[in-house]
Amino acid sequence: MNLLIHEQVAVLVHHVFSMGNNAYGQCGRKVIEGEIYSESQIINKLQGFEDRVVQVACGQDHSLFRTEKGDVYSCGWGADGQTGLGHYDIVSAPTKLGGDIAGVRITQVTTYGDSCLAVSESGELFGWGNSEYLQLTSVTETTQVNVPRHLHFDVGKVKEASCGGTGNAILTEEGHVFVWGYGILGKGPNLMETAIPEMIPPSLFGLSDFNPDICVDRIRCGLNQFAAITNHGELFIWGKNVRGCLGIGRMEDQYFPWRVTVPGEVVDVACGVDHMVILVKSFI
Description:
Blueprint: E1 6-10, E2 16-20, E3 44-45, E4 53-58, E5 62-67, E6 72-76, E7 91-96, E8 106-112, E9 115-120, E10 125-130, E11 144-151, E12 158-163, E13 167-172, E14 177-182, E15 193-199, E16 216-221, E17 225-230, E18 235-239, E19 254-260, E20 265-271, E21 276-281
Antiparallel strand pairs: 1-2, 2-3, 4-5, 5-6, 6-7, 8-9, 9-10, 10-11, 12-13, 13-14, 14-15, 16-17, 17-18, 18-19, 20-21
């Protein structure tokens, strides 16, 4: 399964372009029967947004768009409800979402596979799409949720969210990391599934009496792995170590956050299916 079957590119002017596999309308253009996407060189300019797009996020076969005013649009495959449009059909043009995010200013969207999360300006969390791995079980037993739902988690204000293949993570304004879903979630081998977010002890990210100011500043998820960056530019990872993607010098899975040694200050990290890429600022 290839989770990077299409790409979206946001430009600082009022345009969004797409390219790649459009079998389900995920590139925001009409599906052409029999089109060979591996040979396609079509670059499509998307239309239909009410204001400037400032963020895009690609799922397995769907795309999400966030505008400057905080609205969310989607297109593509909707069989698991991942388009959030109140149905399970294919949509080939970006369409605005409603549900519990109607009238709410959204500041971040995230998706991976067929599950989606959104964070509001006030730090509230919303979710829709696939819930086979307990992602949305806190609000519904339905495993395909086709409209955004407010997730009433008692974690404080959410700063950032990240979707993985089977597990999700959120970062609060206090710098605490919470995880839920299924798989290696970061609290050891005894926690393999939970519908309610559980906090990973801050001490696992370096907080101590000697380093009282350390907190997590960014959180990222891959297919089966997680990554966190602290305010000191240190990288911690955990999850399935597929093909050595965790960069910990061994091939075993990692059940709790492990600091990865890199020659510089970690600025950002991207997690793929079986690899990771780190952006580092040199100490020199």
